């Protein structure tokens, strides 16, 4: 039998020797056709090296209020400096760094405005909240080798923030501190909901239960787009209390049922023809994640469906978001890992779903979708 792994490892080793050779790099940089590939590889390598500096530029824009300042633009560097309480040189350094990243733009001499990317960030409070939140991630990643060696045995800034993740690993007590993460999730939820609404029809669904639905932002979006839906919200008691009130206020109490509970220990309420799990599965390690899918499967009548939406691993063209960003984020959080659609589908089959398939979304950085039928 042909040993494909041996052939592939041999080929990769040879290719890597060639790529590492200064003679090859010198030659590739000069051949017209190869030059473009070589340059994009070199730029990619530099971005890997410099990514932390880029994200700190973004952070300075958000934490320093520079997006808001530039929204009032065009504006001169001296005024930016005064409003940001820094020297003009400091402000110019940041404005120029932002210009290179399309966060700011110099429309004319000393006339600073939002850049193309800047306009997107400025308009989006949810993304800015996420940038602020990443302060915790960067603190945990200060020494990545040490973080990996601790093997999730000690509390981290992120495990303290996600109190349920900390509690799962004995790193903290699960208390009532759920409102901070619930607000962060609600602020960024529309990205996920938009992907789901653009790729899934709820026309044939009558009753939709969102498990781990937080403050109800996903149900609010889906319930507004599909007014015939009856909605159920399942989450920890302190979370559904707020979520239920938000949903009743937005869509009417008669459309909403709240289910306080623990999705690992309590049964999932029956009678729903679709259950959604939005940004939940990746939060949990394989055994509890499988337990959650088993629990949901047990609640579903034949033909009822489970919709899973979250950023997933190994999506073509978006690979770094999955296993590089979320891989490290969830490691630092102390629980979970990003999974590929194929891995999720295998878990769904194991839980007894009769079929499962992945559905393409336009922006997999926001979410990919898998749907399974009981
Ligand atoms: C990452 S947030 C996602 C919230 C929401 N689905 C969204 O995408 O915005 C995870 C949610 O799961 C809930 N959760 C965590 N552990 C839980 C458990 N054991 N039982 C019920 N809900 C839980 C949290 O309270 C939180 O609302």
From TrEMBL:
The active site is at 282 (proton acceptor). It holds the Pfam family Dimerisation. GO terms for biological process: methylation. Coiled coil: none annotated. It comes from Erythrobacter dokdonensis DSW-74. Residues 47-120 form the O-methyltransferase dimerisation domain. GO terms for molecular function: O-methyltransferase activity; protein dimerization activity. Residues 173-354 form the O-methyltransferase C-terminal domain. It comes from the Bacteria. PANTHER family: O-METHYLTRANSFERASE CICE (PTHR43712:SF2), PUTATIVE (AFU_ORTHOLOGUE AFUA_4G14580)-RELATED (PTHR43712). CDD domains: AdoMet_MTases. Transmembrane segments: none annotated. Keywords: Methyltransferase, S-adenosyl-L-methionine, Transferase. This is Hydroxyneurosporene methyltransferase CrtF. InterPro entries: COMT-like, COMT_C, COMT_dimerisation, SAM-dependent_MTases_sf, WH-like_DNA-bd_sf, WH_DNA-bd_sf.
């Amino acid at each position: 039998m042909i040993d494909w792994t041996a052939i592939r490892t041999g080929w990769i080793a040879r290719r890597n020797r060639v790529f590492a050779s200064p003679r090859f790099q010198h030659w590739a940089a000069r051949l017209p056709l190869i030059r473009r590939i070589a340059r994009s590889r070199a730029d990619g390598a530099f971005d890997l090296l410099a990514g932390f500096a880029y994200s700190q530029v973004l952070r300075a824009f958000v934490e320093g209020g520079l997006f808001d300042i530039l929204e009032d633009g065009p504006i001169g560097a001296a005024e930016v400096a005064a409003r940001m309480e820094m020297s003009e040189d400091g402000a110019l350094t940041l404005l120029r760094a932002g210009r290179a990243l399309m966060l700011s733009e110099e429309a004319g001499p000393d006339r600073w405005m939002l850049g193309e990317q800047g306009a997107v960030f400025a308009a989006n409070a949810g993304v800015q909240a996420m940038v602020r939140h990443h302060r915790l991630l960067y603190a945990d990643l200060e020494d990545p080798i040490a973080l990996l060696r601790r093997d999730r045995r000690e509390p981290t800034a992120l495990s303290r923030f996600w109190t349920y993740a900390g509690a799962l690993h004995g790193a903290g007590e699960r208390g009532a501190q759920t409102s901070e993460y619930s607000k962060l999730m609600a602020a960024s939820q529309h990205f996920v909901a938009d992907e789901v609404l653009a790729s899934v029809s709820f026309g044939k669904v009558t009753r939709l239960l969102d498990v781990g639905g937080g403050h109800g932002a996903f149900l609010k979006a889906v319930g507004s787009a599909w007014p015939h839906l009856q909605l159920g919200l399942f989450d920890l008691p302190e979370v559904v209390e707020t979520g239920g009130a938000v949903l009743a206020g937005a869509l009417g109490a008669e459309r909403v049922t709240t289910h306080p509970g623990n999705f690992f220990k309590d049964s999932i309420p029956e009678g729903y023809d679709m259950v959604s799990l939005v940004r939940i599965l990746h939060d949990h390690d394989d055994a509890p994640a499988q337990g959650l899918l088993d629990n949901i499967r047990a609640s579903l009548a034949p033909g009822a469906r489970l919709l899973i939406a979250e950023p997933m691993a190994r999506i073509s063209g978006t690979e770094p978001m999955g296993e590089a960003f979320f891989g490290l984020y969830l490691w630092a959080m102390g629980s979970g890992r990003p999974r590929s659609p194929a891995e999720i589908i295998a878990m769904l089959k194991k839980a007894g779903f009769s079929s499962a398939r992945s559905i393409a979304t336009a922006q997999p950085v926001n979410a990919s979708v898998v749907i399974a039928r009981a």
